[in-house]
Model the fold of this input.
Amino acid sequence: MKTSRLFPRLAAGAAVSAALVLLASCGGGGGGGGGGNGGTPPPATTMGTVAVSLTDAPACGFDAVNITVTKVRIHASNIASDTDSGWTDITLTPARKINLLNLSNGALEALGQASLATGHYSQIRLVLDPNGAGGTANTVVPSGSLLERSLDTPSAVQSGIKLVNDFDVGANQRVDLVLDFDACKSVVSKGNGSYALKPVVKVVPATLNGIGGFVSSALLGSHVAITAQQNGAIIAATVPNASSGEFALTRLPAGNYDVVITADDRAAGVVGAVPVAAGSTITALSTSAAPLTLPPSLQGSISGTVTLAPASATEVATVTARQVISGGPAVALRYQAADLLNGSYTLAKLPVAPIQYVSYSSALPLVFSSTATTPSSGIYRLDATAVGYAVKTNAAVDIGSINQTGINFNLTP
Done:
C-alpha cells in the first residue's frame, strides 16, 4: 500500500522526497507483539505508537537499487543480538521487493504495523530476503543497462541491518523515526560487474522541513545531484524531479547548509549558508518561473586505487573531491566508494570551470557568479577515508589539461 505525504506548496513548490514507511500503532503487530516478549499485551494505557520510515539518497551510477524486505525488528537494548529475546518483529508476508530509487515526491511505502510497550528503545534492524536462485531478491541496475545484477547482502540477510538510536515510546503517544539510506555510499563494486551492499544508514529528524527549489529543464537528463553540506561533509542528497526539475532536501537538523548542485558537462553551483529551521518549513532557493541553472564546463576525471593496510574484509574506502571557496566553505563535488576487492576508484565528470557561487538570500531569484577556489579551478583536493583508518589527502590534483590516473592512497590506522 502506498500513501503520499507531500509538502505544502510554498514558493519552491511541493517536495521531491522519498520514504519507505513502517507504521506501528496500538492494537496490531507481528512476531513478538506487546513489546516483543510474546505474552499478553499490557493494557492500552501502557502502549504507544512508533512509525519507522526509510528514505534514500540518490545512487551514483545506478538506475535501480532493489531490496526485498522481510521484516523490521525493534529492541530496547542496543547490544541485543538477533537471537536474544525481547524483539518486536513486524513481518511482511510475502516479502516485498522495493526499488529505493522509485520512492520520490514524498511517496511512502507502508510495510506494516505493531504496538510497543511504553519505555526506552535503542535498536532497529531491517532484515532482507536472501538472494535465491538467480539472485533477484536484492539487485542493482547500472545506469544505461536493463540487466539486474545481484547485490550481495550477507550481513543484512543473516541478522538485519543494525541501527542504534535511542527513542522513548510514551503511553498513547506516537514516535516517528526516519532512516536515511544512502544508496550512493552503500552500493560498492566487487570487480567483474558484481556488487555488494555495505549499508550506510542514519536516523534523521522526522519533521518534514528542509530546502527546496527548482533546477532548469536544460539540466534535466544530465545526472543532476543536489546535496546539503556542512564544512564539506554531505548531510543529505537528492535528485530533481525528471519532468519538473523540482527538488527537496528533507528532514534536516536546524542550522545552516551549503547547497551544492552538480550536473554532467556543467560547472558546479553552490548556494552558501542556507538556513533551515526546526519547524515544518521549507527554505526556497528558486521557483518554477526562475529555476537555478549552470553554465557549460569541460569535464575531467581522476582515478587510482585505495589500499587498506592492514586489509579489511568489511571496511570500504571512499574518495571525495573537494574545493574550498575563497572566503567561504569547503564543498564536495564528487565522491565514490572504492572497489571492495581491488580498491580502484574513478571520479568522473569533474568540472574544470570555476564554481558558480551565491550567498543565500530570501530575495529571489538568486544569481550565480564565478568564484575563486582553493585549489583553483580544475584542481581538486582528494580525501581518502575509511572507518578505523587515518584520512589521507592529495592536496592538488589538476585536471585542467589532462585526466589524472594513478592517484593512489595507502590508508593505515
The first helix runs from residue 154 to 158. The chain has two helices and 32 strands. Helices lie at 154-158, 183-186.
